[in-house]
Amino acid sequence: MTVSPWLGTASGLQQGLLTAAGDAWGDWGLLGVRDPSLAPDASSVAADNFRRFITASYPGYAFHTWAERLIALLQRVADGELHRLIVCCPPRLGKSLLVSKLFPAYWVSRYPHRFCAIASYSAELAYAHSREARHFYRSCGHPLSKDSTAVGNWLTPQRGGCIAAGVRGPFTGKGYALGVIDDPYKGPEDAGSAAQRQKLIEWFQSVWLTRAEPGVSGTAGAAQVVVLTRWHQDDLIGWLLEQEAGEAPQHWHVLNLPALAEPLETSLSFPPTCSVEPEWREAGVPLCPERFPLAELEQIRIRAGRYWWEALYQQRPSPAEGLLFRRAWLRTAPVRQSSRESRAFAPLVLSCDLSFKGGAENDACGFVLLGMVDQSRAPQPLLQARESGLQLHPSSAALANTAADPRGTPPFLVEVLWAQRHQLDLPGTVNYLLQSLDALKRQGLSPDAVLIEDAANGPAVCQLLRRKIPGLIAIRPQGSKVSRAHAVAPLLEAGQVGFQRPTEALQSELLSFPTGAHDDLVDAFCQGVIWLQQQHWRSRGRSEPPRPLLFSH
Fold first, then answer.
1. Would you state the torsion angle of the CA atoms of residues 382, 386, 391, 395, taken in this order, to the nearest 10 degrees?
2. String of b and e for 221-250 (b: at least 16 CB within 10 Å)?
3. Is 42-313's fold the same as 327-540's?
4. Top-level CATH class of 42-313?
5. How many helices (H) and strands (E) does the chain have?
6. Residue 497 carries which DSSP code?
7. Span of 64-68, 157-161, 259-263, 377-381 with lowest mean pLDDT
8. Complete edge-to-edge strand list for the sheet that includes strand 414-422
9. d(Cα 99, Cα 77) in Å, to the nearest integer?
10. Burial class (CB in 10 A: 0-12, 13-18, 19+), 483
11. What are the pLDDT digits (tens) for 317-354?
12. What 3-state class would DSSP assign to 311?
């Protein structure tokens, strides 16, 4: 190839059409001719460190404390030390700039022969992230391939690069060694729809995961980074964490960033297979006071409302204190060890909320064992006082021996002993009920009644079990689930209901009701409490007798 003499001079190059300003590839259109203005310098050397890369490509970036934590984790991803990262943080914090724009650019600069994939709720947003990543990659002097510079699929000369698509969109023919999913839900309607959430999960399983590069010679496969603001308890992150209890846990590392730091005792818990980045703040300290000071967060809390504040800003779609049912109302009852103690309940009922389709997309069956405390079997405080040699105050002489005293009378009228949720079809439901009743009988906890909702296929189960299970009662539900929960809530608030320890799943559902992913145990619980209240509690016409004023020696 013959080069024109005037193009061979510096002045000729500056005057030609292929100037440095208009040269997309940095080679002036000539093979092997490098643009001197894009020669390697300190900025291109910054590729060995993510923080230096940020300083070189985005000089005005503010390295806030939360960002330093995230940058350090992303550096571990780039170094191959961390392969599963979940990031939960409030909106408008700047997570996308770090995770979906700067980090892909840095990662491709380190591994120009490999692919990074970016996915978001729409192709337009994913392309916008990819466009910015391409810009940051180029700004540090790293070249692009001349035959592919599109924002949704740009390549390096080493034939690696970046691909982008919307969630539920195609990644046909492409694999990736780094996958970044950023905000897969468009908004509350998208995240609140069970059908849309299921479609995202199916896309994640059938498309996203199948495009990940496998490990070679014992090395780990593609790294995954999922970053989002929590919208719903059963969103993608909720599903990923739920899968940790299965046969193939992924051992995610979680960076959970609530807008206001929470006390340790009420902070979110994560599966034991996950590692969690420790909180560095004291309770009540803002995450990023430089952008969102405490006064501004308080205004946001008021404007957003309780649920959206807890979900979007505190990263807990089910609030720590609860919605309809408050955490402070969930009081712990003593565990009764012996069969003699179990006779303190009159009656004892097993309340069931049944579904008869065993598929994962269908409702589960909820089983809750409740007992109403028999106050007539409670210790009699006056008799106990006399037996202990105590002299009674004269004001107690006219009181009956059944007088209630907080030191002797059981503190609750209803106790929840046990709660289980299972995905069962009709034969499985029948078998599970029979096995559970047999196990309870061996523990001295045989229910006096088994309550089954007389709706949907409930009557079919009643017909199957009526001859096998004594005390089977069909309950016709009155009102909606929410109205029944409102009828039960005052009893919990008044301290009339206690929970024994094997009921954590029920308590979790109560705190997230009515917006939680599951409510099967709540339905069974409310059904049982309302039945006990109507059939046994009110019929006794209970009234609290006066209490003794004083015991003294």
1. 20
2. ebbbbbbbbbbbbbbbbbbbbebbeeeeee
3. no
4. alpha beta
5. 19, 18
6. E
7. 377-381
8. 331-332, 497-499, 414-422, 365-373, 345-353, 449-453, 472-475
9. 11
10. exposed
11. 876 667 788 888 999 987 765 555 555 787 899 999 88
12. helix
- Number of residues written out for the chain: 553
Asked if 96 and 182 touch (Cβ cutoff 8 Å), the reply is: yes
| 497-499 vs 253-256, strand pairing mode | unpaired
Instruction: Between 287 and 18, name the one with better pLDDT.
Output: 287
Nearest CA-CA partner of 179 in 119, 239, 136, 234: 119
Dihedral class, residue 168 (left if φ above 0, else alpha if ψ from -120 to 50, else beta): left
Q: For helices 520-532 and 481-493, what crossing angle results, to 10°?
A: 60
Model confidence at 478, in pLDDT bands (50, 70, 90)?
confident
Please provide the DSSP assignment of 282-307 as one string: -TT-BS-TTTS-HHHHHHHHHHH-HH
Say if strands 345-353 and 449-453 run parallel, antiparallel, or are unpaired.
parallel
Place of tokens 């990543």: 133
From CA 450, how far away is CA 472, in angstroms rounded?
Answer: 5
The pTM for the full model equals 0.61
Across the range 102-131, mean pLDDT stands at: 95
- Mark 184-199 as b/e (b = at least 16 C-beta within 10 Å): bbbeeebbeeeeebee
pLDDT at 90: 96
d(CA 266, CA 368): 25
For residues 28 and 14, the answer to whether their CB atoms sit within 8 Å is no
Token pair, residue 176, equals 């990736």
Query: Is 9 a residue whose pLDDT tops 60?
Result: no
DSSP helix/strand/coil, 366: strand
**Residue 529 near residue 374 (C-beta atoms within 8 A):** no
Peptide linkage before 514 cis (omega within 30 of 0): yes
- Asked if residue 39 lies in contact with residue 141, where contact means CB atoms within 8 angstroms, the answer is yes
The answer to whether 259 touches 287, Cβ cutoff 8 Å, is: yes
Query: What one-character-per-residue DSSP string does 257-285 give?
Result: --SB---GGGS----TTSEEPPP-S-TT-
pLDDT tens digit sequence for 24-74: 555 555 444 455 444 444 445 445 799 999 999 999 999 999 999 999 999
Question: Per the structure block, which two tokens stand in for 205?
Answer: 């399983």
Per residue in 487-525, pLDDT tens?
898 889 888 999 988 898 899 889 888 777 788 999 999
Q: Which CATH number fits domain 327-540: 1.20.1440.120, 3.40.630.30, 1.20.120.1770, 3.30.420.240?
A: 3.30.420.240
pLDDT of residue 43: 41
CA distance 91 to 231: 11
Tell me the two tokens of residue 335: 């565990």
Six-digit token string for 138: 């180029």
**pLDDT tens-digit map of 290-303:** 999 999 999 998 88
Q: In the block, which residue shows the tokens 């571990």?
A: 76
Structure tokens at 540: 């006794």
As given in the structure block, the two tokens for residue 119 are 């996915």
What would the two tokens of residue 171 be?
A: 């990644």
Q: Where are the domains of the chain?
A: 5-38, 42-313, 327-540
Q: Tell whether the torsion through CA atoms of 288, 290, 295 and 300 is positive or negative.
A: negative
